[in-house]
Amino acid sequence: MQRRTAWENIGAGISTLAATAALFAALVAPRAAHAVDESVWADLAKVGKLEANFEQTQTRAVLKQPLVSRGVVRYDRGTASLLWQVVSPGASTFSLVGTVAKMEYPDLGMKDTFDLAQVPEASRLASSLLVWMQADAAAVSRDFDTTYGTDSATLRPKDPTLRGLLSELQIRFASAPTRVRSVDLVEPDADRVHIAFRGVRLDGVATTDP
Amino acid sequence: MTPRLRLGLLAGVTLLLGGVATQMRVSTNLADALPAEGPAGRAFRDISRFSLLDSIVIEVDGTGRTEDELHAAVDALGAALSARDDFASVRYRFGMADGIALRKAATPSLALLGDGDAFAARLTPEGMHAALERARDRMFSPAGAMMARGLEVDPLDLGGAFTDAVMGAGALGGVSLRGGHLVAEDGAHALILARANTPALGTTLDSPVVQHLQVDLAASPLPASWLGSHRFAAEAADQITREVNLAVTAGLVLVGLVFLVAFRSVRPLLGALPAIVVGGAAAAAAAALRSPIHGMALAFGGALAGLGVDYWIHLYLTGVRDGVPATLKERYRVGLDALHHLLPAYTMSVAATLTAFLMLATSSYQAVADLAWIGIGTAAGALLSVVLGGPAMFALVARPGDRIPTVPLPTRIPGVLAVLLVAGLGGLAFAGLGVRFDGDPRAMDARLPATAAIERAFESRYGGAGTTALVVAEAPTLDAALDLLAARTDSLRDTPGIAVKSALPFLPAPAERAARAALLADPAALEARFLAAADDVGFSGAALLPGFRASLAATAAPTVSSWDGTPGADLVRRTVRVGPDGAAVAAIINAVTTEALEHAQREFELATPAGADDDVRFVFPAGVAKAGAEQIRTELLTRSGLGLLAVLLFMAARYRDLPNFLAAALPSLAAAAGTLGVLALFDFALTPVSGPALVLVLGLAFDQGVFLVEADQVSRSAWASSRAAILVALATALGGFVGLTVATHPAVFSLGVAMSLGIAFTFVGAFLVVPAILTDAGRAWTRTFVRRASFVVAVALSLDALLAIRGRVVPPPAPTSFRSYTLDVRSPTDRRYGPNRLTRSHGIWVERVEGTAYEIGHATGLLAADLRARNEDSIVSEFYTHVKNPLVRYGLVRGVPLLADAMTASTPPAYLEELRGYTDTGAAPYDWVAPQYTRKLCYHAIHDVGQAMVDSPLLGCTGFVAGGARTADGHWMIGRNWDFDGGRLFDEDKAVTLVARDGAIPFLHVAIVGLSGVVSGVNAEGIGVAVLAAASDAPIRAGAPMIFIVREILEKAKTLEDARAILDARRGFVSEAILVVDGKHGAGAVFEVTPDQVEVLPAGDAIALSNHFRSPALANHAANLQRMAEGTTVARLARMEALIAPENGPIDLSRALAILRDRGGAGGAPLPAGHESTINADVASHGVVIDATARTITVSMSPNLAGGFARFSLDAMLAGDLDGERVSGPDAPEVTYRVHEARRLQRSAATQADAEASETLRHALRLAPGSPDLLLDLAERLPAGDERAALARDALATPPERARDVRRANVLLGAAAP
């Protein structure tokens, strides 16, 4: 069994939480069809449960071709639990409950559990992202420089450590109801992870894919 | 000499002795009791240096709770313990921070760390491909970004491989890392591993570490228990202290009572004070001169203080026997007269004591030598006190009217009673020859019930006590020590059933570093390989190349401090010692059972290069302690025996009269015979504690005999006073020791029992036998008896000599010339003698011999010189184990050689010449029993003799023949397990031997080195043979051992017809079944052979076989039917037939091995491990698949079939290639070891009382759950009730192994026996 380092686990937290947080940017409350502003975060807290299919495309300098994976994401605000389940091409599962994260690779026969709270840096980073996901507008403005555009928002971390891992987070929204269409995580070395969401269900209610 | 002068001298000497005594230093360090040199002392120093005994295991019980609750409880308790100063380390979770710290510390040395083979594999094209594929697959996860980062830094994940390996290395057997915690296989228990700051020795219940543990465990959220040497030491110290204090207090009270009852006054007791003071001062002075002296020796020596009291009692009673005068001056004169009368007795007593103790003083064990010198000091002090102070004390304490106490025993003993008592003592002496000596330290170590229960639970979950050892390497520098350790632990890597932990993964040895450098010597080639693999997997090689180069350039050698703050720190700091005198590094070996550790020790010793010094040693604490105890036993026997002999000679010189000599010696002879006999009859073993105690008793008994004889030569009144004195002396001695017999600590109990028995039998000898001897009639009778007894003994010895001579087999003459070479011993496992060679491959001896028959035997004898004594010791040990009755043993030892003539007449002469050649190469340890040639010939009949014992547990085999369409490649094969329970020799030292005798067909067989016969083999003509035991009604008659007949088949047969002709021409002892296949012509047959006839069972393309006949002519023999009805042969045959059935497909090697390893019952139903109705009952000495067509044999590696299999080719070995090929890996060796341990416990339970046996059997059941035999044994030890019935029902449902077990179960359930 191979172990993950803290940074790899932090990376799990970053990309997963960021993507899910971005999803929560979609609100059931009506919003201006194409204009997004800081008020969007206030509505995120109203969504109790989220479920969506995702397609993740990694474009990296180390890869000859982009790496595509597909799966399902589920979030429950009530239990503060997150599940990120990759279905193809290889199965893996990431879950986060509080600060305890679990990763499982059935095909590789690997399973691991770790507590982000054991590593203060990882814990702080995770907390920052959780705060953003919890739609704490004050914390968002404290931890990120945010630029709003048409159907999009670009978040740049203020924290140097997080900035070392993530240059910016680009979120695209769909409307009626407002929700996230895709997330792009841009890394300092120009590597990019593009995650597109389909079949989004908010509190059990299905939305129509654009 | 005036009284004042005497007393002045006495006071002066006492002061002087006291002054010397102040320099006495008492040690509790066990090292001070052991020899400074030698394995025991060195082992103890190693154990202390590497804190082997300082580990503490804490278990949290989460039964019925969730895993998260269990983990939380472990975290809470672990944190509490970590906050204490009592521990050098507390490990309770392995989390992210640990991984980070390890990775960080490993980064500068990535290319040096981790397993060498794994590193080399990772640098191959396939290895690189696999590593990159894994990385790519992990990138699909949400952690893809960070996987990519890690990939850029360390593309081959060398850091991950290292971290995984070392994070899991700290765990015990039966434990895995789950959720960052050490969790047992049942998922309900988790461990905390701690190492105390203070050594275990010297720990008491009041020690801070014990107190704090108890507090913290009580506060744990979930139930928690702890175990470790600190607990054992604390409880033992408490138990011994309490019990000895109680016994001493009770003893003092009893002694006082004896004095009061005997003398009706305390004055005589006061008179004994100087004797106690002077004797004690003398003993302490002797101890001071030997300081530091261990407390054990001092405690024993204290028992000798009574010697001075005994001398005083004799003096006092001698003085009062003719009346005590009124004046002080006259009383002094009477005392002086008494002293003069007793001087001869005192002199004899002191001389005998000094002689005996001087023998012990030469012991290499400091504790024994110290005890002897204390004894010498005490004896000298006793004499001094009575000579210088006795008369004065008599004058002071004696008063007119003092009388000799009445001895409530008859003065005249009927001769008949004395004769009966002597006969009884003779019987006890004979029984005492069978007394066991138990040197196992566990037998001297008591556990409180609660601790024992925890220990049993831990053993069943994680492996048992006595299963940890060290390999210690010392060298001038750390690098040199690491190299030594790496080289010498390499042989343990593939040893089944053990785990090896050391600092080597963290501190790679120079040889390993050099090997890595060699692997990295061509970076360009490695880079090209890497780029190709990256491209193939879908990565950009150019993007990953910098990280690849950097990781392989990370070759900074780590230091000890490199690992501080990481999970590896404790292991590194604990197992590495660097000082101005050099460096020492240790590897910790954990094994599932003691047997597995003993096996590992043997593999280590075999891998020891010839001439290697002690700089690398295997330290097996339990084994060393046991060997040390055996050494004590040997020393005691030899030195005590010599001492006894010297004293007897001394007495013979003094008395020169047979009755007086016997009378003087009889009390000590009675003490020895009676004590050893009672211990043997009740199966109490002599121990390292009670053995020396017996020596003390013999000394005490000698004194009593001497006093009686000396008194008898003076007068009847002297006789009366001596009897009274002896009675008081024995009573006070008994009072001092009888209190120990109620102790619960085994060491204290054994001491009390030995001393009490010895004193009691001294009494019998002194009061009930000696008086009868010392009469006129008694003297005459004694002379007559001794004459007649001597005659009887002479006749018996002559008869024995005649039998020995009659049974002596005349070997064939040695050839006048034969080829001889120079023996080349390159290592214990590589010995060469011309074209002959003995080596070891995959844990199996491999031998190649050629030449004439004599030359083959001669070569084998020289090549196996190191194994000869060990092998014979093992055979003799098994003989004693299986044949317990000494008379039966004697009958076999003298009787079997009488069959040698018939064996010799029936055995091909070449094999006798081979035996001659073997035995001509040197002496063997048992030549005093019978000539080596005679013994060797008889050993070859063991297989047959064992079978002659109906339903012998020694033998039971299952096998099959298959060929043609029934095998995957059309080859003809035999597969079989040889379930010969002849001891570990046949399993651990099994040998594959190629024999190429001049004029005979070369053949390959598996047995042991030095066995000239064959049980399983194949020849160069493609004939494969295996012999299985069977039974018929044909009478057993002496003939050629069957294994010689089977060998003859291999050396002569080219077809099945040839084999049949050989069987027709020769007849063996007993009935056997012979499997024969012809790999060249494609045929197989089963020959059912009895001493009268040979029958053939048609084999077709496949047939199964076990241990009963099926041919029409033999199937209905009563013996055959009885075996089928009562044994396991039918069940095993049925299972084998099911496994080889055509619907299961053709059989290849892999399937054949799986068949031999099968543990299933009828229909494949799983049966408990070790069930004797299964094909694999964890008892096979070897499992073998003989491919007669390819001329290969594939042999099992110990233990039994669980270690793996290796294949050997006859053709390759003929060409000189003796290396085997490993074709199958281990198959749960821990299960096999546990079954063995369960059987050992079952055997020990047979001699225990019901309560103790029940606990032992429960423990055995935890190791071998569901065993019907164990269930029934346990049920039979329990009182009638629900549990007993439930156990019997479970056994019936399993099902039981044999018909008699069904009957046992039915009896237990109250049903009528069928």
What secondary-structure arrangement, pairings included, does this model have?
The complex is a heterodimer of chains A (210) and B (1314).
Chain A: H1 6-24, E1 49-59, E2 67-76, E3 81-88, E4 92-97, E5 100-105, E6 110-115, H2 120-133, H3 137-143, E7 144-149, E8 152-157, H4 160-165, E9 168-174, E10 179-186, E11 192-202, E12 205-206
Antiparallel strand pairs in A: 1-2, 1-11, 2-3, 3-4, 4-5, 5-6, 7-8, 8-9, 9-10, 10-11, 11-12
Chain B: H1 3-21, E1 26-27, H2 39-49, E2 55-61, H3 67-82, E3 87-91, H4 96-106, H5 116-122, H6 125-139, H7 144-153, H8 158-169, E4 175-178, E5 181-184, E6 189-196, H9 208-218, E7 224-228, H10 229-263, H11 267-271, H12 273-289, E8 293-294, H13 295-303, H14 306-320, H15 328-360, H16 366-397, H17 415-432, H18 449-462, E9 468-475, H19 478-489, E10 498-502, H20 510-519, H21 523-537, H22 541-553, H23 569-575, E11 576-579, E12 582-591, H24 594-606, E13 616-619, H25 621-655, H26 658-681, H27 690-712, H28 716-738, H29 746-773, H30 776-806, E14 823-827, E15 830-833, E16 836-841, E17 844-851, H31 853-863, H32 865-882, H33 886-895, H34 900-906, H35 909-919, H36 932-939, H37 942-948, E18 958-962, E19 973-978, H38 984-988, E20 990-997, E21 1003-1008, E22 1016-1019, E23 1023-1029, H39 1042-1052, H40 1056-1065, E24 1072-1078, E25 1083-1089, E26 1094-1098, E27 1102-1105, H41 1118-1126, H42 1129-1139, H43 1149-1156, E28 1182-1187, E29 1192-1197, E30 1204-1209, H44 1210-1214, E31 1221-1224, H45 1229-1245, H46 1250-1263, H47 1268-1277, H48 1282-1293, H49 1299-1309
Parallel strand pairs in B: 1-8, 17-20
Antiparallel strand pairs in B: 2-6, 2-7, 3-6, 4-5, 5-6, 9-12, 9-13, 10-12, 11-12, 14-15, 15-16, 16-17, 18-19, 18-27, 19-28, 20-21, 21-22, 22-23, 23-24, 24-25, 25-26, 28-29, 29-30, 30-31
Helix pairs in contact in B: 1-12, 1-16, 2-25, 4-8, 6-7, 6-21, 10-28, 12-14, 12-16, 13-16, 14-15, 14-16, 14-28, 15-16, 15-25, 15-27, 17-26, 17-29, 21-22, 25-26, 26-27, 26-29, 27-28, 27-29, 28-29, 31-35, 35-36, 39-40, 45-46, 46-47, 47-48, 47-49, 48-49
